[in-house]
Amino acid sequence: MSVARALYSTVLRLAQPLLRRKLARRGRTEPGYLTHVEERFGHYSQAPSQGWVWVHAVSLGETRAAGILIEALRAEWARRGWPFHLLLTHGTATGRAEGQRLLREGDVQVWQPWDTPAAVQRFLRQFRPALGLLMETEVWPNLVAACRSQGLPLALANARLNAKSLASAQRLRWLSEPAYQGFRAVWAQTEADAQRLRQLGAPVQAVLGNVKFDARPDPTQHSLGQSLAQRLWVERGQRVLLLASSREGEEALWLQALRQVPPLPGVQWLLVPRHPQRFDAVAALCAEAGLSVARRSQWSSQQPDDLPPVADVWLGDTLGDMALYYSLSRAALLGGSFEPLGGQNLIEAAACACPVLMGPHTFNFADAAALSEASGAAWRVADVPAALTLLAELLAQPERLQAASQAAQGFAAAHRGAAARTAHVAAELLLSQRLHSLAPRRL
């Protein structure tokens, strides 16, 4: 072990009590953090096993992307006549809750091990995966080093790296470069991501696109959202505008902009905070501003013939309903882009034919944001007041909104296929490992 990684490991080992306290604190609002805590330190209740296809998706967004990839992996393994046994790991409670939907009989779901040498070794001894796929940005020095030393083929799938993250990694080059170089393969979303990853020594083998483009909206939610939107227009003369996946501070900016910009006629606002632990705080913030709030979790019915309650703001305080929210909305403000947070994934909005208005900060999804804007499926604005001003223009010109809605669907459809490509190269990586293990050893 290098001096740099030894120092890193010591810091993480000493930080374990802090991690336990953090989990206990988060667990007060998100009970999922209090479940199976010892798994994070490499202690498991089940018997040791082997041969897993291990997919790691740290949080909610990565888990949704992983779900698309996992379906493609199952199809690829079936095509080759191979058994498929999934080991799914996460770092956040929302990721683990979403991941439960992806499991089939015989699959296993546990927490990602804390990145100390001991916890990582216990994890690998427990499950002995045949193949490891880490989603998007998950690079852990001890985990990568242990997989490499044990001959476990480990790949970074759907990989992305923005300029800000590259600069941070370069400041810690002594730790980050060996970690990126330790992967057996890296499959980038875009050529720009690939170029940045190569600067850290990552073995980028291909640019395969973004698997999130392969997501299809839940047909039941999509149909329900469209039906609700139609009835809302006919019965109340309203159209829904969405603040999607908002982050802390953005709801306050929105409330301030509502006071600055003339009211938008015939609009029903829908707010969907990114993190569930903030649902109550956002509801309270709206109430303090004098707005009435109707929460999705308290709607009496989900039938198209029963419209949600009359209120100034509908609060989307449920998980897994984004397809409903986007399908219900005429346009959406993209959360995370009005504060310097990098933006949120806009691909799901496009798949639901919902055009988006983006703030100035989309560095986490720079390529998708640029492509969406170029296709006519999105608009770039300077701030929230500018977004509301543009929305007023668009509502007065419904043909522009309709054209943008059609452009959004076309944009989403044009970039599909990354999941199948990634599943294919993952299978080839595993096949290469198996052939290598069967090759005669040179004496």
TrEMBL record:
Cell compartments where the protein resides: Cell membrane
Catalytic activity: lipid IVA (E. coli) + CMP-3-deoxy-beta-D-manno-octulosonate = alpha-Kdo-(2->6)-lipid IVA (E. coli) + CMP + H(+)
Pfam families given in the database record: Glycos_transf_N (PF04413)
Residues in 3-deoxy-D-manno-octulosonic-acid transferase N-terminal domain copies: 36-215
EC number: 2.4.99.12
Molecular function per GO: transferase activity
Principal localisation: membrane
Functional pathway: Bacterial outer membrane biogenesis; LPS core biosynthesis
Domain of life per record: Bacteria
Function: Involved in lipopolysaccharide (LPS) biosynthesis. Catalyzes the transfer of 3-deoxy-D-manno-octulosonate (Kdo) residue(s) from CMP-Kdo to lipid IV(A), the tetraacyldisaccharide-1,4'-bisphosphate precursor of lipid A.
Protein name per Swiss-Prot or TrEMBL: 3-deoxy-D-manno-octulosonic acid transferase
Taxonomic source organism: Curvibacter microcysteis
